[in-house]
């Protein structure tokens, strides 16, 4: 058999400094790295220490903690924390913590703890993704970015129309604004996982149907979504190959200035100080919980600048190679 074993690449989802590591047998032999770095695993025979080097750089190899070791260490550290919502081991209940086990069922928001240590990735030739997901806090300007993309280049970008159980208003008709349906049908479809997300507002159900995303994909356009971060797990599949951009909130002061300059950051009428504070807080929470999913982070401190950066990033997808989850390649 002349096949060469494929090189293993891991994307790190934490910072590592061997000088601060009490477990490493020899600190000088360690390889320091940052969250987001791509590491080539040169040797993984030892269950605790892997030998690695940075991908694409012909640099020296060094020791890094194996996934197994890092999982154990994080579970152990978590032991001392009193609140599970604060960090990596979100979803652990107090009782389960003692056994170092995940309890993912308890909290669907956090049920992707397994990706947070290392994520196996593959290099892929330049290609355009078919789904663009803009995640971020409410009021951070995702809707405006999405609308601007579609307005500027309707042959390339398309949104999806949501479904709702509320009755159409006077100027609305099916497919214009929303697809209108009844609550019962919608509830059944939600139960059958036909929606990537849904919510209730004023006693009515609203949600985005998976089939609407397929339809856009079929048309050859890039589907632009500004959905809830809880949908990321459903969307990050070989089928959608999404490009996930986190639109981060700037400071409360900058948000206020942007709002006063006339940017529609919110759809809920006049924004108040507390709305800006809520946006900034929510943004930090989403970032902390979901950052392992993000391909790109843009701080929206100037709408025009953010829009230009987004366009530039989308263009560069078609000209640079990309690191993608290993299961996208097969
Ligand atoms: P309206 O009925 O005035 O068109 O929308 C009222 C609210 O429904 C919106 O402000 C938003 O909070 C919610 N909504 C609209 N579309 C969706 C959707 O696709 N998903 C979810 N979860 N909520 C939506």
TrEMBL record:
Stretches assigned to the SH3 domain: 5-74
Domain (Guanylate kinase-like) ranges: 129-315
Protein name, entry field: Uncharacterized protein
Keyword tags: SH3 domain
Shown part of the complete sequence: 227 to 556 of 556
Source organism superkingdom: Eukaryota
Family note: Belongs to the MAGUK family.
Lineage: Eukaryota, Metazoa, Spiralia, Lophotrochozoa, Mollusca
